[in-house]
Amino acid sequence: MSVWQADFYRRPLKTERGEPIWELLLCEADGSLTYRQRCLQSQANPQWVARQFQQFGEGQLATTVQVFRPQCLGLIGEAAKQLGMAIEATRRTYALKRLLLLLAREYPQEANYTGEEYDPLAVDRPPPLPLPEKLWGDGWRFASIEAGDLVDTFADLPIPIVEMPDLLKPIHLGLSSTVTVPGVAIDGGKASMQLARWLQGAGPVAIDYRGGEFGGLVLEAGLNDRTILATFDDPEAIAAARRFEQRKQAAGGLHFLLVQPDDTGRTYSGFWLLQAA
Question: Please, which residues bridge with residue 144 across strands?
Fold first, then answer.
């Protein structure tokens, strides 16, 4: 399967008349082939993007185009649809993001540079919303497993929903088999399968501990969605959450989310390997 990663958005550049300049950046998923093209904001439309796709592909279009920026998902999605390519909304566009960071260093040298503050990876981040009440389970806890056992343990279990991308497997992250990979296990009770399906639709990316007066666990999902999984203020839970974050850092950001009906270990509903992207 051929996969492209794409970003189409305004840059910190304007014409002499003050019109924003947009730039399309395309690359293959491994970053081996790249393509850049600019247009005025008034020209930014799906037809223009589709023409650039055709030029980049030179007759060989990708099967899938990956996009991480919500603001350009519609434009790129429509262009991809016109050409029969699937669109995938994902934060895991690593090659594309590396290119955007490199190119951001070039803009200040250009005559059309605006001087505005610019973060090439910035997306709108709405405040986190609470988990729907109907999906609340019976409880949750922090968990952990050694990296060497992670894949074999969960790959062999009869779990209806499993998301274990190759690029997140410990061996591909260069993790030692003895590194402790942290996670969060949710006992969903009667709502376990419903919760797992909801999570699958949301597209889990990472779980973070946020401190403060109303601290707790926040699930990063989709392109920019955030959901409050749990809140707590007791010292024991806070200490455990800090250990969770420390273990995440030691494991290169790798962690997991497990949903099960209860803590008996007999049945499971969903499992996701996670890493911030």
Answer: 182
Q: Is the pTM of this model over 0.85?
A: yes
Domain boundaries, the chain: 3-109, 129-274
- In which region does residue 134 sit, left (phi positive, over 0), alpha (psi from -120 to 50) or beta (all else)? alpha
Confidence (pLDDT) at 31: 85
The distance in angstroms from the start CA to the end CA of the chain is 22
The C-alpha atoms of residue 87 and residue 102 are separated, in whole angstroms, by 25
DSSP H helical segments within 203-257, as ranges?
Answer: 235-250
pLDDT one-digit tens code per residue, 96-146: 999 999 999 999 999 999 999 999 999 988 899 999 989 988 999 999 999
Please provide the CATH number assigned to the domain covering 3-109: 3.30.420.10
Amino acid at the residue 85? M
User: Measured between alpha carbons, how far is residue 213 from residues 19, 238, 240 in Å?
Assistant: 44, 11, 16
Tell me the backbone φ, ψ of residue 99, rounded to 5 degrees: -65, -40
Give the HSE-up count for residue 158: Cα atoms under 13 Å, Cβ half-sphere: 3
SS3 state at 247 = helix
